[in-house]
Automatic annotation (TrEMBL):
It comes from the Bacteria. The keyword Ribonucleoprotein applies. Keywords: Ribonucleoprotein, Ribosomal protein, RNA-binding, rRNA-binding. This is Small ribosomal subunit protein bS20. InterPro entries: Ribosomal_bS20 (IPR002583), Ribosomal_bS20_sf (IPR036510).
Length: 77
């Protein structure tokens, strides 16, 4: 466990960010599964939005988001 005051604060921030990032990661995975299952325009649009947000917050790499979106479009068309 951290001893320095700044290290204690850093640990607190890191744990909070870890929870937020896990929620975003779970959200984009669920959106992808839904888009693949439903194959509807609305589901694909929602998945695009969620992937873009995850890439913007650097949860996933922007090229990975682009690749996943490209694959979704191929499935949908």
């Amino acid at each position: 466990m951290p001893i320095l005051k700044s290290a204690i604060k850093k640990l607190k921030v890191d744990r909070r960010r870890e929870k937020e990032n896990a929620a975003i990661r779970q959200n984009y995975k669920e959106a992808l599964k839904a888009a693949r299952a439903k194959k509807s325009a609305a589901a694909v649009t929602k998945a695009f939005s969620v992937l873009d947000r995850a890439a913007k917050k650097k949860i996933i790499h922007k090229n990975r988001a682009s690749r996943l979106k490209s694959r979704l479009v191929r499935i949908y068309t």
